[in-house]
Amino acid sequence: MKLKIEFSGGLELLFGNQKEYAVDVPCSEQQLTVGKLLPWTRDQLLKDRPELFMKGDSVRPGILVLINDCDWELSGTLDAELQEGDKVLFISTLHGG
Amino acid sequence: MKLKIEFSGGLELLFGNQKEYAVDVPCSEQQLTVGKLLPWTRDQLLKDRPELFMKGDSVRPGILVLINDCDWELSGTLDAELQEGDKVLFISTLHGG
Amino acid sequence: AHQALHGLSKAQVERYSRQLLLPSFGIAAQGRVCSSSVLIVGCGGLGSPAALYLAAAGVRKLGLVDHDVVELSNMHRQVSHSEQRLGMHKAASTAAAVAALNSSVAVDTHLQGLTPSNAVGIISQYDVVIDASDNAPTRYLINDACVACGVPLVSAAAVGTDGQLTVYNAGGNGPCYRCLFPECPAAANCSRCADAGVLGPVPGVMGVLQAVEAIKLVGGVGQPLAGKLLLYDALAGRFSSIKLRGKAPGCAACGEGGMTREGVAAFDYAAFTGGQTANDGPPVPLAVL
Amino acid sequence: AHQALHGLSKAQVERYSRQLLLPSFGIAAQGRVCSSSVLIVGCGGLGSPAALYLAAAGVRKLGLVDHDVVELSNMHRQVSHSEQRLGMHKAASTAAAVAALNSSVAVDTHLQGLTPSNAVGIISQYDVVIDASDNAPTRYLINDACVACGVPLVSAAAVGTDGQLTVYNAGGNGPCYRCLFPECPAAANCSRCADAGVLGPVPGVMGVLQAVEAIKLVGGVGQPLAGKLLLYDALAGRFSSIKLRGKAPGCAACGEGGMTREGVAAFDYAAFTGGQTANDGPPVPLAVL
Ligand SMILES: [Zn+2]
Ligand SMILES: [Zn+2]
């Protein structure tokens, strides 16, 4: 399934300092949940310090997941179903000022 | 044809201080150019000082016309063909600082 | 008689004339701004421009909280300070800048910083709070105290070349900071300016945007930037806006039986954030340069 | 030896340490900023924050152009001035603010304003120009002189609760100001702050964004905001970006046989703009209040 994966708020530093990826994620019968996308993203795209991206089956505290610019809480978090062409954005919350 | 018409940069003051309009513009066989939309917008939506919106067949100097957030110069200005659901944005250039 | 009508003096009418002319703002909103109070927690990269623009706009009272002193490494982004005030307490330095710009603004400085024991007492005196702090414990503390006191919170952050901004607690079903981040990120997941660096004007952009949102709230104009998170990517020159979840029913701050005023004073923010301190750490060694 | 390596002194390393730490900026970009020169035309609502943030970021030379004096009605948005400097020339007042913030920045003030006869001579001395002016004739003049001299131009404007920003002349096929507006708008179509009013921090946001874009240009980092127009709607709390046309082949400034350095000096900007002046008009009578 073709997706856009984006990183922001410093999270891109874990992913080779690249903010946008166009990816094609293997999936069966066009069914793909965010829960399955997370380990794929970690294994395929992450370059550095994997412990800063995932914790257990989900993302680390402090990371927001957005599906087409909407908080994944609005579509079922790990169970959210992705569609061809969706954009998944991972944002690290910032504390600086 | 259903369109979104928006005004910005102070131009909304000529249109009842309303920045966004959802409109249904009469047209024959789903053919509508921006050249035909301009007088319709003036006659149907404009509340004040019509001389500040159009000059001749086009918009006044200082007004940018955007079709789906792209400069109308990229799609033929007055001859640009509109599609159902398009957004047409009129922006007055600002000089203040 | 005129003064009684709109509550503004002749000097105020002249000073704020460009805002009085604005159809969408006008005398009513300016009058509300001139009787409002705003607290700024943090007089650094975000708080500096927020303080200058809120003072210029004419709020009645500005509260300034910080516990640090002005250092040379602050000067590339914290424009309310000056070389002459290096070593001065940051809140006092920003107060001096405010006084020079608009002497009619009352300034209260809180030089000890925000703590669990003073937060509610301070925050309950203000109409709007601006979170311009630089660390996780303070961000949770500000959130909880604003929830407990029912005060709207304009929150922003900036690290590197990225900025983030949202408004909490401004009515509607928008989330609070704890709804979004119920569990504190580990220190390694918290990007701070002292560790990761920051391009000077990036917090500047976000801090002025905080002033805009605070003026909208106290002036009663426009749509507050609530329920959404605004992102600024300075290198790309791009802003985007994302839609946030609603309130979490079980939120420890804004949920049923959530945070009370007493609860804020009793909460152990240091333990919750895994021992992160409210102090900006020492500068990373630059010997490599 | 160290100094020779990167060209920064020990004090500069400390002052700019948070930018040196930034992987996307670092010593190379800071070095370029520290040897760059930026001209700011207009020391008002846009130019005030642009000057503060460019000074803080450490440009080598800042040029400040204005011909007005500081008035009380400026103070709600022009935060580089102070009550003590009311009546002082604006460029001199902003220069004082710059000196207080970063005494290592060289400042050139141009107190006579930008005119067709001095524009090219001034602009050709700078790496980047910031259009922070407030009237149509000056905006055409700055554009033409920047085109003739090949200098990138960071242009912004703010009126009411709206802001606009773009970068001209920064390579690529992006349009110049005359490509977009070959014919001058009538005075009634030109919204200016003195007539229409402006919410104070709105030019503040746009002016800091101009500083960001100028730093990106002189530092050689990021994507300049060229070929696009960024719009800020403060009441809605919304930014949007629109895609602009390319260069107009017949443009009187950047087209074939377009504007030369001599052409700028000879052009009648007053006639072209229908007699609009480069002066901010007197304030609209506020007796109604
Ligand atoms: Zn909550
Ligand atoms: Zn051109």
UniProtKB/TrEMBL annotation, chains A, B:
Gene3D superfamilies membership: 3.10.20.30
Stretch forming the signal peptide: none
Sites of 1-thioglycine modification: 97
Localization (cell): Cytoplasm
CDD domains, alphabetized: Ubl_Urm1
InterPro entries given in the database record: Beta-grasp_dom_sf (IPR012675), Mopterin_synth/thiamin_S_b (IPR016155), Urm1 (IPR015221)
GO cellular component, one term: cytosol
Cross-link Glycyl lysine isopeptide (Gly-Lys) (interchain with K-? in acceptor proteins): residue positions: 97
Similarity comment text for this entry: Belongs to the URM1 family.
Post-translational modification: C-terminal thiocarboxylation occurs in 2 steps, it is first acyl-adenylated (-COAMP) via the hesA/moeB/thiF part of the MOCS3/UBA4 homolog, then thiocarboxylated (-COSH) via the rhodanese domain of the MOCS3/UBA4 homolog.
Pathway: tRNA modification; 5-methoxycarbonylmethyl-2-thiouridine-tRNA biosynthesis
Keywords for the protein's UniProt record, in alphabetical order: Cytoplasm, Isopeptide bond, tRNA processing, Ubl conjugation pathway
The protein's name: Ubiquitin-related modifier 1 homolog
Function: Acts as a sulfur carrier required for 2-thiolation of mcm(5)S(2)U at tRNA wobble positions of cytosolic tRNA(Lys), tRNA(Glu) and tRNA(Gln). Serves as sulfur donor in tRNA 2-thiolation reaction by being thiocarboxylated (-COSH) at its C-terminus by MOCS3. The sulfur is then transferred to tRNA to form 2-thiolation of mcm(5)S(2)U. Also acts as a ubiquitin-like protein (UBL) that is covalently conjugated via an isopeptide bond to lysine residues of target proteins.
A GO biological process held by the record: tRNA wobble uridine modification
